[in-house]
Structures are given as C-alpha cells and as structure tokens.
Write a structure and sequence with these properties.
mainly beta, 2 strands, two-stranded antiparallel sheet, 15% strand
C-alpha cells in the first residue's frame, strides 16, 4: 500500500484479498505462497 514494488529484505504495508475468510489476529505470523508453481512470496518472520 505504501510501495509499488517490494525488494527482498524490504518491508512495506500490504493488503491481501483472500478467496475465503481466515481466522487471524494482529501479530500472527504468516507465509504467502502461490498455488502453481508453489513459490513463497513472503511472510512475517518475527
């Protein structure tokens, strides 16, 4: 939301539009991956 492109190691605010609702709360760790091919896009590591 605050950058057009995010480089490896950078951080930024993002908004996800998911296909289905999920149960999550502030501070939960996550990983975002594509379906096919299975590629890790990013996630929260702290």
């Amino acid at each position: 939301m605050d950058k057009e492109e995010i480089e490896p190691g950078d951080s930024a605010l993002v908004q996800f539009r998911l296909e289905e609702p999920i149960a999550a709360r502030r501070g939960d760790k996550f990983i975002i991956r594509t379906y096919s091919p299975m590629i890790t896009i990013g996630g929260e590591r702290y």
